[in-house]
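Review box. Two proteins, two foldings.
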Amino acid sequence: MTTFPDIRVDDPLTEETLTGSPKFVEGRGKAGGTAMTTFPDIRVGDPLTHETLTVFPLFVEDRVQAERIEYLLSGDALESGTLTVEELGESGSVPELVVTNKGDSRVLFLEGEELRGAKQNRVLNTSVLVPAHSSLKIPVSCVEQGRWAYRSRRFRSEGTHSSSKLRRILKESVTQALASGGGHRSDQGRVWNEVSRLMRSTGSSSDTMAMADAYASSEPRMGDFRVNIPYVEGACGVAFAVAGKIVSLDLFDKIETCRKVWDRLMTGMVVEALETPAAETSSTPSSQDVSALINRWREAPPKPVPAVGEGEELRYESLAPTHASALVFQDAMIHASAITSG
């Protein structure tokens, strides 16, 4: 034999991995890996509208590759008890939490989802795929400025999600931090300012300046939106428009994922729609407008960066002022999102 064989080196086996106990993972993703280079073909469905909120279901034509990736959503894993989310040590750390996954399945956290409890409520700075049987530090932002005391030892999911306005701050500032070597850190000051603005806009009160209290004040209206804008069967993604302007787009690898997170995503968007008067509606968005955004996104060159957990993250800096990113694992786009709101 005149050529040396190709050799792949796997992660080492240790006592922890052999016994099945969780191993601590600092971040498994690597930039420059085998990220998916082709954007999926997407069909934009007919819009659903209630008051100032318009929703476009998105359908992916070919899901064969993506459907083979197995994972649980964070809410399901937390409810089952196979996953815990806690403060980083007894003293805690505002921009980080510790996730321990004792289950046999990967767990997906979504950018912008809210976790409540422990010393203060947080939201995820980016989407994270947590490996099975591992512990992982995840990057978060505080959305409860006036509390730093335990209400519970562990975090829980209430099925709430950030608005597009808050997600834009997260995505923009994290992209900037990654470019400067700062990791997945957000601009915490801007996050607190947005929560304060939301409290004033919704006329909400909160002893701890908690975003959750602004959401609670909108809960009586939430049911009407859910009835008028239900999940559309077969949808793999969703685009939201508020007052005639497209503000966000989320795309998932599975129909089941989209079905489960539809109402979660709606929470932040309903709050945003309720604070936007109908008089501010400029025009009615069309499916063609959504398709145009997707086409621009498809043509934008991605910049690979290390993911927090498994997979690889893509950032689309050339789309600015739209900010977009995608979590890719084994050539499948697990979650991609674009935020356009100012």
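Next protein.
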Amino acid sequence: MNIHLSNGCFRFSVNHKSWFEASFCKSLGATIEFPSEWHEDGLGSIHIAFFFFQVFIHFPWFRVYEDHYQCSGPTFGLIIKDNSFGMGFNPALWVYYGNSDGSTKNSKLKIIYGPWDWGYAKVSKDVGDKSSHDYKYTLNSGEVQHIVATIQEQYREWRRFWIPWKMSVKSIYVDFSDEIGEKTGSWKGGVFGCSYNMKKGESPYETLKRMEKEEKF
């Protein structure tokens, strides 16, 4: 039996299988997901979200469904969750109604956007030069992975569909020299790159160091 608390997430596990998780969120609703080959533990999951708090209750199931590289099993339910891309709370309704096969045509997920939704970036560009820095990631086991992270500052400008209102977002794109994270070495593979939003007044390097402390893969 193991109880783990990290970055606001509470996890209870037995024999390396996680049976209960709780964390903070910005969502409302409930879904049930049945296990696919993507789930190494073979467990399904009931997800209940109530505004700023969510729980995941995992359960065994008699069947494991085929994975189509969609990183989830058959899922059913409704949930209103943040679709803000780091730009404040911007909720959308996500409707799950089956097992997608990884293609857009046969997706079993419908996202219903509100009139407040932001459109795609109207301006997107790289800013400044790339730079490389040492980066370390601590696994749940305590093992530390040491790699090199190459970062590039990026600027994007978003606009709402229905009113002349725009918002700009600065972030860094991070390219790792090798895979990192809990799935490193598994058939799923670790993480090779990601984006992370910058805070006002931060340099790209300071954002990377904050990400090193906060982000879990």
